[in-house]
Amino acid sequence: MNPFNLIMPQILSNKDLTIKESEQVFQYIISGNATEIEMAAFLATLSIKGPCANELIGAVNALKPLVLNPLALDIDTIDVVGTGGDGLKTYNISTAVAFIAASADLYIAKHGNTAVSSKSGASDVLTELGININVDNAILNKCIKEANICFLFAPNFNKAFKNVAKVRKELSFRTIFNLLGPLLNPVRSTRQLLGVFSDKYIKIIAETLQAHGSKKAWVVNGSDGMDEITLTGTTKIAELSENKIKEFEIDPLKYNFKLCDQKSLQGGTPIVNAKKMVNMFNGEKSSYRDIVLLNSAATFCIADKVESFEEGLELSKSIIDSGKAIKTLNKLKEVSNK
Fold this sequence. Notes:
Layout: H1 4-12, H2 19-31, H3 36-49, H4 53-63, E1 78-82, H5 93-102, E2 108-112, H6 122-128, H7 137-146, E3 149-153, H8 154-157, H9 165-170, H10 176-180, E4 191-195, H11 202-211, E5 216-222, E6 235-241, E7 244-250, H12 270-281, H13 287-302, H14 309-321, H15 324-336
Parallel strand pairs: 1-4, 2-3, 4-5
Antiparallel strand pairs: 5-6, 6-7
């Protein structure tokens, strides 16, 4: 039976789907039986209504079994990832944070893709830094064992999006799939710093992570729309901890940071962004360093590595200033190219 016949009238009437209904429609989409017109109509209408937590939970239920887990190691990992699509074209923030966190003996399973709305996505800047992102599972396991970090290039593991790829490319707006990408980390990370392009989704994403067994997560959106903790103003956060969700804000001024304008965080090509990251790890002071410190401190809070955000900031500074972050980057480069 075609689930669109029952589901489309509901969405057109602005009614949310149940978890089961969402699961059924996404199973139909990934089965290859849905036509391009059906998929386009569903994604467009759902975007107008706005996805709810139950719809995301059901979609993850349907898609997760198709995402291949490459890790043989039985370890808890952390992901630092954003939905992309904020249109702000910033330097690679979450990728830099991943190296800092890995330098503090945390296991980082960085999930990412090519650029969505910037000139340089995680895979683009890592490739420019000399890191091999197309490695087999044995090398991935060596990366996280020897460097505490591995990069999971989404297209290599996530076959669930295959049947909808053409439709997504032709649609000129964000759909539920932009939210789903960060929720489908192949190694099932249990802790996340997850940035979204709109504050209306921070609690919805936190509820989805809660339903799928996340231990601790911060879902963040900056007042400028950034899918990171921003340095241009305040950031709204939905924290999942001990199976409860609470919302709060972070103001950089409280931690003695100077607010910056958006232009000072704007990156460029992978060459530009890679050079900026290396310079920052080698001690260059800038707004880029400051925003990376803010997000690294959050990661340490999520990992329960520190007892306060202030302590997380101090740890982040010490890792950069001691040269540990650049050593971790070079180690990943070495192991990934073996």
